[in-house]
Amino acid sequence: MRRWPFALSLSALAACASNAPHAAAGATPDVKDVSSTQACAEVQCVRDIHVRLKDKDGKPFERTYAMVPVVQPAGVSIYAGQTVRFEADDSNGQLVNLRRVESGGDPARTIEARLEQLPDGGMMLTTRNPFPRPLKIRMGMMLLDSDRLLKTTSCPVIPNGSGFEHWPHPIFQVFLGDLSLLPDSSGMRCE
Question: What is the DSSP code (8-state) at residue 157?
Answer without folding.
Answer: B
